[in-house]
Every structure is written in C-alpha cells, then in structure tokens.
Amino acid sequence: MTGRLNIVVADTVPTVRDKLAISLPEVVGESSLDVHVSTAGSAETVRNYLDSARVDCTVVSTRMVDESGERLVSTLRTEDTPVVSFMRTDPSQEELEHIGEVVYDAARNTVGSVDHRALFDAVDVGVAVRDADTLSLIDINDKYVDTLGLDEETLCTTFSTDLSAAPDVPDMSASAIRDLFDGERSEKYEFTSSYEHPDGDGIWLHVSLTTATISGERRFISTIEDVTEERTRKRDLERNRELLERTQCISKVGGWELDLETETLEWTDQTKRIHDLPLDSQPTLQEALEFYIPEHRETMKSLVERCRTEGILWEDTFRIVTASGDERWVRTWGEPVIQRGEIVAIRGTVQDITARRSREKELERANEELEALNRIIRHDIRNDMAVIVGWAEYLEDHVDDDGREVLDRILSTGRHTIEITQVARDLIETMSGGVTETRPVSLKETIDRELAVRTEAFSTAEFEVDGDIPDVMVRANPLLASVFGNLFNNAVQHTEDDPVVTVSATEDDHHVRVFVSDNGPGIPDSRKEVVFGKGEHGLDSTGTGLGLYLVNLLVESFGGRVHIEDNEPTGSVVIVELPLASPSS
C-alpha cells in the first residue's frame, strides 16, 4: 500500500491528541505511506475535516460526544470513513502500535471491505479484547458497555487494573488463564459469573473466554451475556419440579408415559415408590403389567391396547403386588397422546389408594353394624317397650291409688324409652348416610305436626305459636321433624314447673329462622356451645344427651346452623336457621 494516508485524531485532552499525532506515523505500517495526521478537540472540528477533505480514517476517543450528547464513535460509524476508537488517556507503546495496526488495516480495506467494527458493535453479546500478557482491556463493544452499565473509561480503568472486579476474567492468575489454552487444552473456557450492576440489582453473566491472533498479536477475547432471566426461569422450574415431587409424595400420585413407537415406558419417582422400586430403575411395559394380580392383569392389558388402537381413555381401580411383596390398591388413569392425527403415546397417573380403600371398608363395616343396631332398636326394643306401655295404659283403670304412682312411673319411663329409641334411630340413619339427600319440605306442616304430638304427650305443658309460621319450603328431608320434636321435648323436660314453650319464625330472601323459647332455668354462656356435643346433657337432665347433638347434626346436614340465646326473663331460645328451597330443588 503506497500513497498518502489522511488520519484525523480526536480527543478532548490536547496531550493525548499530540501524543497520537506524533506516534501514529511511526507505528501505522509501511514506510512507503505518507501518513498525515490532523487533530480535533471537538465533534464540530471532526465534521469539518470530513466535509472539507479526504479522510482515510478517524481515530476517536470514546470519551467524546457529539452535539446531541451521543457518543461520537457511534455517530461516526454510520459514515463511510473507517473509525478506530481508543479508551485510555495514557496509551502505552503497545496500545499505540495496536492502534496503528488497526488504522492501517482500516485504511487499506476502506473500499469494498466488510465493516468489521460495525459487526463488532452489532453482535448481541458483550465482547472485550484483552492483552494476553497483562489482561488489560484493549477494546470493547457497545453491548459490553450496556450490559455492565458503566461508561467506557470507567470500565477500561477499573477492569484493567482490578481484574478481581472484572466479571469476564476467571478467578485465577494471568498465567493460569494462559495455561487453559496451551497444548491440547480446550479452545474455549466458559463459566458463570455474578455481577453487581450499578443500578443495584445483581445479575448473572455467562462468560466465554478464548484466544485469537489480531494483527499478529495474541489476544484474549471474552464474551458476556446476561443470563439472569434464564437462571431465574431455571430456578423456578426446579422449584416447581420439587414442589410437584413433594405434591406427588403427599397425594401418593405418580405419573407415567408409554412411547408407542419405541415401547419405552417412563415412570416418575413417585410411581416407582408406589411399586417399591429403586428410583434409578425403569421397568418395561411387560414388567409393569406383572405387578398387577393375575385377575386384574388382563383387564389392564386390554385397557392399554384399546387406548393404543382406539384412543379410549380409562380410569379404574386395581390391586398390585409391589416389588417388596406388599399388596396395594391403586387407581390408574390413562389417555392417548395424539400428534398429527396419530396416537404416538399413552400417558397417565397411578395413585396409591390403599389407605382410602381400607377406610372405606371400615366405614362399610361400621354402617353394617349401625344398621344392625338400628334394626334391634327399631324392631326389638321399641316394639317391646310399646307392648309394655300398652299394658301399663290398660292397667290404669285397674289399680288403686297406692299403685297409681308406680304405674305412672312405669308409663313415664316406657314412653321416655320409646322417645330415646326414636332419637337413636334418627341418629343412626343420619350417621350411616341412610337419609342424606335434601329436598323441599314444608316448614309449617312439620312444626304443626310436631306441636300436635307434643301437646298430647305433655298434658302439663303449654305450647304457643307467636305470630304465623311462614308457609315456605325449606331444604331438608323427613328428619326435619326430628329436629323440632327433640327441641320441643328438650324445652319441656328441662323446665320443672308449668313449662311454656313458644314457637315463632321469620324469613328473608334466602333463609328462615325458627325460635323455640322456654321458661326453664336457662343455659350459662359457658355451655351454650358445648350442649350440642355428643353425650352432653342439659342442666339437671337425666336424658341421654343425644337430642341436641342430633339436632345440630341434622341442621348442619341441611346447610343450616343452630345456636342458643337467653330468653327474658328466664329460660333459653334455640334459634334454627334453615335455607329456603330453591324452585328447582
């Protein structure tokens, strides 16, 4: 390359401009070149040179800005004239030689060349060029600056003198870093580095370090990429995976997938635990089917085959024998995986329901026992007591005054026993699920009927209705009669002298409230909640304690609630709130 080479050196510091102006002709390249250097201290002066004369290359400090505040280097790179940037305010001889080589190459390749600097700045990762001996920064691109959030001069000064602060330099000596690339070692060294961003947020960088020969000199090239979001997503994914694993353990639900092309079966860890298999095992389809007891195995095979050929999903319960020899009940579910209209896999879940199955069996046995007890109470005890009461009533006209007191006690005890059997029967039916479904029930008819029965049964008690009972339908079932029957009995039995029971009711758009008041001794605040417990008795009561317990159990099963308040001047008020039946109930 021969001829004249016109260079413009631009820097705000005069001494730097002068040093470069003197040094560049000596280091720029071939002696056959006539190197002419002009200096500029402002963007305007640089523009004047570019507009008025031929300029082969501009050497611009990264500190300089144009009239709009943009970096002059970036602005000039949009022009046709090659631009070489430098950062240091006191360039070493080695850096001057590097600048000279870059200027020579840029000027030589001006016509018909690729703008390597533009490519350097255009890449979407931060790139830094470092001296292979000192690791000091020689050049960086815009992305490097943007990623680290510092200006070029600060980066050059800080990350050249304090290598421990540089996120793109491994935590080792320069010689150790050079050793990474000597001999047959790797051509690239990668690591992840944390960096405290100036905005106060910590970020993670993926760093790749390699070597390159630039203008005959060995350089280290490091690239940095902000991978904070990627690490966050990976951490969240790992946390979600751990949460899913814990959820599977708690719920005893595992997953599986069968690849129909390769016949490869994959089980999650929880599925392996259910079968008592090591977590590093992966059974085949045939081995998996062998866990099912013989009478269930063929059914399972058929379900898999139908899903494979016809795409029919399934959900069913089976018994298995685990690798440890334990018998377990499992509920399996499977569905086809369809891609481009073809069934390519089957996936599903398996849940250990052994404990639930055991509880269901225990509940069935308990219900059978309750039903047996109900039959005994309903047919044996109740019928026998009805006979006793009947004969006692027959004797009323055949005893003298001395025997009447004893006969009255027999009648009272017999009738009370019959009431107890009625309560016990209703309680058993409720607890065993014999009467659980609700339907519209007439509130007024139920209360009127129970009041009529109690008025006849308790001749010494007075029953009053305050106002009108709303003629509405509530959501309940036939055992609603037991609710009010027990409340009326309870109100009379807990009042020693002249019992007065008052019934009233109110309604709103969604509920009806029935108030059953008595003039008895009342219930202390400390016992207003506990009297609804199983086995609790009223004050000085000789009853079983099942009546109010049954009332609360039934009302809650209807979707209502019951509580107790004080009556004035004495006694208690039991308030029963019931949901109104909707038209579609």
Automatic annotation (TrEMBL):
Residues 376-582 form the Histidine kinase domain. The keyword Protein transport does not apply. Pfam families: HATPase_c, HisKA, PAS_3, PAS_8. GO terms for molecular function: ATP binding; protein histidine kinase activity. Residues 353-383 form a coiled coil. It comes from the Archaea. It catalyses: ATP + protein L-histidine = ADP + protein N-phospho-L-histidine. Keywords: ATP-binding, Coiled coil, Kinase, Nucleotide-binding, Phosphoprotein, Transferase. Its EC number is 2.7.13.3. Residues 314-365 form the PAC domain. This is histidine kinase. It comes from Haloferax namakaokahaiae.
